[in-house]
Design goal:
With about 425 residues, the chain is mostly beta strands. It has strands at about 5-10, 25-35, 45, 55-60, 70-80, 85-95, 105-115, 125, 150-160, 165-175, 185-195, 205, 230-240, 250-255, 265, 270, 275-280, 290-295, 310, 315-325, 330-340, 350, 355, 360-365, 365-370, 375, 380, 385, 390-400, 405-415.
Length: about 425
Amino acid sequence: MKKKFTIFILAFFFGFIDLDFVSAQSIDSAEYFIDIDPGVGNGNAAGFIPADSIYDSLQISTTGLAPGFHYVFFRTQDTNRVWSLYEGALFYLADTVPQSLPPSYPLISVEYFYDTDPGIGNGIGLTIASADSIIDSLTISTVGLASGFHTIFYRVKDSTNVWSLYEGAKFYLTDTIPLALSHTYPIVSAEYFFDTDPGIGNGIALPTFATSDSITLTDTLPTAPLTAGTHYLFLRVKDSMNVWSLYEGTSFIICNKIPVPDFTADTVCLYTPTSFTDLSTNLDTSAQFTYAWDFNNDGITDDTTKGNTTHLFPSSGTHTVTLIVNNTSGCMDTVTKTVYVDSLPTVTFALPFDTLCRNDSIVLSGGVPAGGTYSGNGVWAGILYGDSVNLGDNTVYYTYYTTDSCFSTKSVLIYVDLCTGINEIA
C-alpha cells in the first residue's frame, strides 16, 4: 500500500479581531490530521519557516489507512499561541500492491436464447473455436418469433464448465410475407365541411366523379359564409357499400384584404444610396401590417420600413430586390424586381509638366478618357492662369462624366514659381 503522498498547503491565519486593537501576527506552527480531529494541538506537526502566510509542500504518511476516500485537515497557530480553524481536502488512497488475479480459462462453448431464459445449458448452442475471447459473426434463425420487438441473449462457458452471466440486445423482427388485404370497395361519393362536423352524410357534396379505388379532384369551393381569419376544411368519402371514411382536414385563411406590394427604384451611381418608392396598395391599415425588404436576394429580411426607403448597394450591376407585405392575418403577397446600379468611370490624370511660372498660363491636358472638365483655383475654360493662384503647390482636378451622369475625379499638384532670373526665350 502506498505509504506517503504529497500535499501543497497554502495557509493564512484566521484569528479573532479585537475592535479596540488590531495587530498582525505571523504563523508560528501548523498541524494536520486525517479524517478525525484529535483535538487542537494534538495533530501531526508540519514543519515550515514561520511567516505571515505559508505555501509549502510536505509528504504525509498514510500508514494504517484503508484504500478509498479520506480527508486531510490542517490548522495553524500564531505567535500569540492562538489556533486557526482547520481546513481540509479530499483525497483517494489507492492500493498499489498488485492483487492476485484468479486464473483464466479458455471459452469452449456459447449458447443463446430469445426473450425468456430457458435455464443455463438449455439455450441454443453455437460451435466456436476455443479461445480466451471470441469475436464472431453468425446468422441465426428467428423461426417461430412473431413480428415486433425481441431481445436476444447469449452466455459463454469456459473449460471448467463455468457459465458467464448473459448479455442481451434488442432487435425488431419484420414480417416480409405480404399480408392478405381485405376486399376493398370503390369510392362513389365525397362530401366536405368547414370547421364543425355537421354529421356523416350532412356535409356539402362534391361534384359527381367516376367511381374508383382512389380519386384526385381539383375544384373551387365557395367560402362566402365564412368570416375573415383561420378556418379548417374537412373531407370524407363513401364507398360502394355506403361506408364512410374518417375525415381529413387542412387549415386555410380568409383575408379581408390581400395586399398588392409594388415599388419603383431610381438608377444611381455606385456608392450612392438607391431610393425605393413604395407603391403597395390594398393594405389593411385597420390592423397591424408589416413590410419585409430583401435587398440581397438571400431570403433574409434586410429592412422592415413601411413605405419609402433607401439602400446602399456595395457593387454596381443588377440587384434582385423582393418586397413582402403581410396584413398579419396571414394575408400576404410578394413582388420581386431588378434594380440597376451604374458603375463609375475609370479616370486617370497626369500633366505633362509640374511647374508653371507666375506670369504664364497653360492649356490643361492629360485627363483620360477625353471629354472631361478641368477645375481648380486659377482654372477657366480649361486654362490654368499662374497669376490667379498662390505661389507654391496648387491642386488641379479632372472630372469625367458618363452618359448616366456618373463621374470620377482625379487631381494633381502643380507648382507655381516666380521664375526670377530666367530670361524669356523669344
